[in-house]
Amino acid sequence: MTLPSTVSTLRPDAPPTPLALVADDLARVETRIRELVASRETRLSEVAGELIGSGGKRVRPALSLLVFRAAGGDDATDVIDIGAALELIHSATLLHDDILDSGMTRRGRPSPLARHGVGLTLVTGDFLFSKAFGVAGRFDAMVVGWATDACIQLCEGEILQQRFRRNPDVQLADYLEVAEAKTASLFSQAARIGAHLAGADPALVHAMYRAGYEVGLGFQMVDDLLDVLGPPEVIGKPVGSDLREGSPALPTVLALPHLPAVRAAFLAEEPDALSVERALDALRGSTVLDEVRRIAEERIRSARAELDRLPPSAFRDGLHQLADLVLERTA
Ligand code: FPP
Ligand code: MG
Prior knowledge:
mainly alpha, Farnesyl Diphosphate Synthase, two-stranded antiparallel sheet, 16 helices, globular, disordered N terminus, binds farnesyl diphosphate, binds magnesium ion
């Protein structure tokens, strides 16, 4: 990925990235996260620390911070707290998601599930989620409501995705509903809360919600593309995981009516390596991936249009750049 994995990986000679604009704030988010994952039960802190220290991109806190700054926010203490809480919620969902998907690799390493089993992974997710709400719960009712909405949508998205798993009737509209719930929800609330905490007027707060939503959808679409293209050492998981799991990813959904090899792998209860390879080859040799990219680009264009409602500033430029980087990401 073009973005640095964490703030600490920003090098002085590295080209400027949107994250560099809020590097000091992101460093404070990092410190806050470390404080929050401390527990007298060191196993909890260890498992949480393993995941959180394994190279997440901190995109959600960065989005909140950039929007906050671009909307004229000054003292970032509150948005730093919210950024830490959003990252903890995101981390909790990854822990729980690996249990549901039997995901054994996460960010290029054996997942917490593979290393510690279901019990500790589950409770560490609960722990992070509780810590996140310990922080988010001190804000006004709107912020608490938005953070809660994101969590509810994350849960609903997971169940909705199960409904379309290996389901030949899945349509583009179903895909969008799942992607909105499982990915765009946290992005949209991150951006909206950043604007709200900066004291922006309701119209701008809503525009930032829309911008975060569009960036989140684009992010998920590129994620689905990378699952087909790999390579595994860059994306941090085996290529073709979505097909193996029967997950209704965008390339699969678009290819189902046209590519029998994709249909066969998607519908098989446990597709063998050869059928997954054939499906991936069929996808790579078709126009489906171009179509996925085109749809993702449309989302990023919409996000940029919403971001244009911000007053001109280096932070607004950084947000445009962050949106563009979603399309360039390689992991
Ligand atoms: C990753 O999808 C899954 C999510 C982003 C959401 C998972 C949500 C839950 C498990 C509900 C729990 C919610 C809370 C608030 C604790 P994926 O499997 O497509 O992505 P992957 O390739 O990263 O595994
Ligand atoms: Mg998963």
